[in-house]
Design goal:
Elements: E1 13-18, H1 23-38, E2 43-48, H2 53-66, E3 71-76, H3 88-99, E4 106-110, H4 117-129, E5 134-138, E6 152-155, H5 158-171, H6 183-196, E7 204-208
Parallel strand pairs: 1-2, 1-4, 2-3, 4-5
Antiparallel strand pairs: 5-7, 6-7
């Protein structure tokens, strides 16, 4: 596949939205590592909508490894996990407050078809709030089997793959008891997407773009 290149000179701020601590890392961790290395002038703002003290510390540790020496922030809100539909109004208010903040050039969020209720609520609210922005939706493998057919691929170097897998396994001890939170699952997912885009290394992360404006 012939790549479409994002111009780092025109991308100054990326907003990363996640329902839970570890979502951004699972869905886009390797891409963020690559971008942080290749685009040192870009600011990355993370907003995670639920998490206790332990999980917040885990995501902060992971973000520090992703954005080594870079410009970034991590904000963790305390909405109740798995109950986002019941807190829709308050979460929408929090999302609207994000829109009133610094203008992002790119927004990363959950996939609209994600069957996890918290992920789906945030995806819907992201699209309702950031209506004039470029949005890429990341995917998370899970029990529900809701992976689809992405249309945006980021080929990865082996170093990015290794770094992502290491930080997931080392920064999130609270999740290691889960049957799906394993290195082979995450590697297999990256390998599958790498095959689909013919990545030179054999690995890639994939996203969904509903609308794409080419300048």
């Amino acid at each position: 596949m012939h790549p479409f290149t994002l111009d780092p000179a025109k991308m100054r701020r990326v907003l990363c939205i996640g329902a839970h601590c570890d979502d951004v890392e699972i869905g886009a961790g390797a891409t963020l590592i690559a971008w942080s290395q290749r685009c040192p002038g870009v600011r990355f703002d993370w907003v995670l909508f639920s998490g206790d003290d332990q999980r917040e510390a885990e995501s902060r540790a992971a973000a520090a490894r992703i954005h080594v020496g870079g410009d970034y922030s991590v904000r963790v809100l305390r909405f109740r996990g798995s109950y986002f539909p019941a807190e829709y109004g308050a979460i929408k208010d929090a999302m609207e407050a994000l829109r009133d903040g610094p203008e992002p050039d790119l927004v990363l969020t959950h996939r609209l078809e994600d069957r996890h209720q918290d992920h789906r609520v945030l995806a819907e609210l992201t699209w309702g709030t950031f209506r004039r922005h470029q949005i890429l939706e990341y995917e998370i493998p899970k029990y529900e089997g809701d992976l689809g057919q992405p249309n945006v691929y980021v080929p990865l170097d082996e170093t990015h793959v290794t770094a992502k897998l290491a930080l997931l396994m080392e920064c999130f001890p609270s999740q290691r008891h889960r049957a799906w939170f394993t290195e082979d699952l995450f590697r297999g997912h990256l390998r599958l997407r790498g095959i689909e885009c013919n990545a030179p290394s054999g690995f890639a992360e994939a996203f969904y773009a509903r609308k794409l404006t080419v300048d």
